[in-house]
From TrEMBL:
InterPro entries: Glyco_hydro/deAcase_b/a-brl (IPR011330), NODB_dom (IPR002509), Polysacc_deacetylase_ArnD (IPR050248). It comes from the Bacteria. Residues 1-18 form the signal peptide. Residues 182-369 form the NodB homology domain. CDD domains: CE4_NodB_like_6s_7s. Pfam families: Polysacc_deac_1 (PF01522). PANTHER family: GLYCOSYL TRANSFERASE-RELATED. This is Polysaccharide deacetylase family protein. The keyword Signal applies. Keywords: Signal. The keyword Signal applies.
Amino acid sequence: MRIALFLSAWLVCLSAVAAPTEPATLDRSTWPEQLISPVLFDVASRAEILTFAHALLSSEALDERALSQRLGLKIINMDAVDTVRQRMWQRLLANYNFAQQSCDQDASFCYYVDGMDSLREQAGKFEIAPDSFYVDWAEPSAEFHRTYLDEQLRLAALFPQIGSEIELFSDREFNGGGMNDRLFMLTFDSGPTQLPGTTDWLTDYLRKQSVSATFFVLGNSVQARLDKQSVQALQALYKGQCLGVQGWEYRSHSHWTDWQDSIVRSSALVKKVLPDNYVPLFRPPYGHRRADSGAFFEAQGMQVALWNIDSQDLAGSLSAEQSAQRVLSLMLLWRHGVISFHDTQSKVRSALPWLMKATAQSGLGWQECSALAQP
């Protein structure tokens, strides 16, 4: 009976899902200025915030049926959508307030905003004049934010039937939303790669940049490394970095009978061979985890580490540079948070250096990985 009920619920869930659109990306070369100072970071940030706010406001004019059609879904959770929209507005207001602190040095995209009403008013009338210095950026950015907004609303519309990073299930979970302005954390999923591989290149690159990151590893991939190299070699690989887990293998932990064992086994292995790097964090593959899992993670002394800036580097339609450009656009929009890459993707060899170079003079900071376990 339990199996039948599970299959029934799963089929209902699948019936609500249509194929998603291609992930959003924005050609940053359309923006006419390099982010060579904190002030210019703020200018670009204000522009992205207002463009996204305009898209968000416009979406509120759609009724449930029209929104379902736009998102390509048969069934949507409007309560979750409304909750996510309200949280987005609060974040946009806080971010715009941070971004307008430099308006006395550069007044571009500085408008009177002293609260939610005025932000919504400015968002509603926001547009770029045909003769503007920023006109080549305007339409590509508008399209990026419409597409990105649909990505987020789609996740909300399917929540909690399909778990994702869009919302938290318990106080054992976090997604970087509470981080300080201009502070970002790099994370990498589903490694380590086979020897030699991108993981080897990536950890070496990060050490040379004096940056630490959190690597969410798979137990079976760690074991595969240990079958071919010594514990000391694996410790040298991750020197200066932090290690959380994604379970024993890369699969959804929301409907997997052995999901608890998957987490316990992988955590035990990492703690045994890499005790100086281990942090008690679980990154759910695909963002899928059980809604009632809070008690388990509390008993394990673990937290669920989600993200709020997704590189979409798994998408075959995005090149390495497009993935990096997407991340930069979302950094300008959200102004802080946890960035998700996959070190199993060779794209990161190009995407990460591009991102580091593009932001080197913009006044942002890279959070030490050990702080990720202390939200």
